[in-house]
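Duplicate of #3305? Posting structure anyway:
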């Protein structure tokens, strides 16, 4: 009798592929380093000592589990499906990012690494990694585009307070894609003593798997909590997708359940290339930053310019697992424009007293639209982060009195 393995044990395969997406397209000098990271994750990462220490950190330092909350006021305001929120904004540092940052930093400690290197867009990953570095006594270097440094100033300040060195990236569009380029270059200089702690379910294998696995705590908590609250599974799951770490964290526990799954991409200002960052909606297959996925690209195959009001979604590709799940029609793609996102930002703030991150506001915006289409169903939204970092930008550019 042949027993079917659970989905999470089947994907990715041993070469890091989800169907045809994923893999590890690396310069020769990094191949052995990435192999050693994979071997360490598969051995050390599955040891009882590692798991016990990580669980202790999550409970006593991060404050997990985060709750599932029924957004009664927002539900009544929208007048449709019942909207629930997985409150990752209550996770220490204010977002889901610490879930994988503590895991990556713990692995770095076991490997004897001295320095953590990473990119950040909205700054949430940078803050989380700086926090993890402080916790474990490691050096930390965060690469961030100059555009995002100006836009996300509160998080830049937090990173510096935590002891991280923030490296401004001033070439190209000066946003997330360039920050990744810069961080990879820095890692290439000393891969023996440092580790590149990738901030989403992107990059060369094993990082899409590692980040998903560390983030899966979100989904498994939410599944148990929702069943306890309602006696049922949610009819619909909704999460924003840039690279897609928060979304894979939620989705991972429900892939084999009869739930509709929606990954919400940033539609930005419109559908023309350069006006949005909706890779799955408008992209095509291509390789970027060491992995094969769906990406927004110019006619010559180079990464296209992208736009999103949310710095954490401002990326021209998407995690390979998202590309795969969409290709086999297990997940659906939704979108939210900048304007819809701002409206959702204010709606959740005013009706629930919860100020969401602009990234998470994309998911809330889509959930509000979906609720009107499915009035008798339930929707579980991953509220991936809080909006402290965004309030100055929002108030300056989208004054409260206009909404």
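Output from current build:
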């Amino acid at each position: 009798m042949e027993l079917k393995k659970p989905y999470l044990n089947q994907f990715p395969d041993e070469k890091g592929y989800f169907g045809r997406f994923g893999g590890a397209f690396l310069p020769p000098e990094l191949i052995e380093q990435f192999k050693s990271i994979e071997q360490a994750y598969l051995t050390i990462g599955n040891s009882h000592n590692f798991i016990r220490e990580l669980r202790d950190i999550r409970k006593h330092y991060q404050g997990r589990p985060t709750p599932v909350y029924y957004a009664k006021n927002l539900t009544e305001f929208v007048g449709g499906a019942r909207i629930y929120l997985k409150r990752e904004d209550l996770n220490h540092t204010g977002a889901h990012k610490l879930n994988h940052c503590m895991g990556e930093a713990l692995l770095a400690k076991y490997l004897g690494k001295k320095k953590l290197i990473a990119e950040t867009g909205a700054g949430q990953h940078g803050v989380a990694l700086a926090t993890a570095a402080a916790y474990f006594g490691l050096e930390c270097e965060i690469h961030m585009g100059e555009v995002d440094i100006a836009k996300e100033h509160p998080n830049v300040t937090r990173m510096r307070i935590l002891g991280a060195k923030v490296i401004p990236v001033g070439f190209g569009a000066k946003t997330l894609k360039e920050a990744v380029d810069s961080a990879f270059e820095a890692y290439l200089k000393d891969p023996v003593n440092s580790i590149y702690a990738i901030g989403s379910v992107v990059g060369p294998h094993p990082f899409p798997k590692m980040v998903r696995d560390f983030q899966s705590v979100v989904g498994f908590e939410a599944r148990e909590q929702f069943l306890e609250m309602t006696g049922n599974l949610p009819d619909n799951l909704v999460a924003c997708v840039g690279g897609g770490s928060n979304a894979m964290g939620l989705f991972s526990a429900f892939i084999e359940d009869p739930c509709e799954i929606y990954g919400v991409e940033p539609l930005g200002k419109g559908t023309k290339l350069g006006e949005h960052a909706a890779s799955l909606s408008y992209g095509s297959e291509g390789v970027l930053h060491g992995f094969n996925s769906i990406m927004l690209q110019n006619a010559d195959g180079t990464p296209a310019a992208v736009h999103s009001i949310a710095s954490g979604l401002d990326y021209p590709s998407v995690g390979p697992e998202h590309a795969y799940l969409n290709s086999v029609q297990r997940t659906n793609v939704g979108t939210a424009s900048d304007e819809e996102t701002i409206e959702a930002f204010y709606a959740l703030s005013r009706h629930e007293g919860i100020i969401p991150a602009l990234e998470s506001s994309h998911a809330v915006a889509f959930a509000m639209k979906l609720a009107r289409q499915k009035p008798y169903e339930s929707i579980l939204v991953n509220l991936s982060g809080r909006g402290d970092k965004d309030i100055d930008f929002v108030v300056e550019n989208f004054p409260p009195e206009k909404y």
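Confirmed duplicate; merging threads. DSSP finds 16 helices and 14 strands in the chain. The chain has a mean pLDDT of 96.
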